[in-house]
TrEMBL record:
Compartment(s) of residence: Membrane
Pfam families: Glyco_transf_64 (PF09258)
Organism expressing this protein natively: Phaeodactylum tricornutum (Diatom)
Primary location: membrane
The protein, known as: Glycosyl transferase 64 domain-containing protein
Keywords noted in UniProt: Disulfide bond, Membrane, Transferase
Residue ranges constituting the Glycosyl transferase domain according to the UniProt record: 4-232
Origin: domain of life: Eukaryota
Amino acid sequence: MEQFTVRVNTWKRLEQLRVSTIHHASCPGVAQVQVVWCEAQGEPPSWLLTLNDKIVIERHSVNSLNERFHMLVEPPTIGILSIDDDVLRPCLALDAGFVRWTQHPDRMVGFDARSHTVQGKKHGGSWAYGYLSTTERTNRYSMTLTRYAFLHRDYLRSYTNDLPPSIRSYIDEHFNCEDIAMTFWVSSHTNGQPPLLADFWAVKSQVKLYSDAAISSTSDHKAIRDICVDRF
């Protein structure tokens, strides 16, 4: 396993997509860059395929976050790097994460540590979503984000074919939590083991491309993710 496939999830952020695809296609470890393109946002730009021969467009008629894991184009590698279009890391950071993944191909290897916690302990409690601040304060994590994470392509296939319909429906209804579902889905196949993390320097090498259109910026984002963790 010498190379991996990048799958870019994108939505109406063409400048970020341009920067992301150019950068990731330039990395020697990347065999292909698959752009997950929802047709609800219109036709893909004509310039996209001219940027690099590694880039392919995967056109989806369904507007759903579940579609980021729905492989319509067979990847040329078993290793998948799932990313959002507004996050970059140096090629060497990708290589470091990939090396760790090749040592544990049944696990996810991520760059973003998150956790699930208990809230309302006095009243029986419920599971809740823990941001990075919670993870750092407690020095423990249990999840990672698929905005930048390695995983085996078989998990994408099983997510699409075998994930309980109630979970897929909840993700569609609230347009959130597909990353939580995938983390739990992989852990359910590894006896509850959490994802692994890339080296600390690679985790900290993130470059975030500015965007004012992000799901995480909505006022109810945390509340929805709390419910997802508790339900899933």
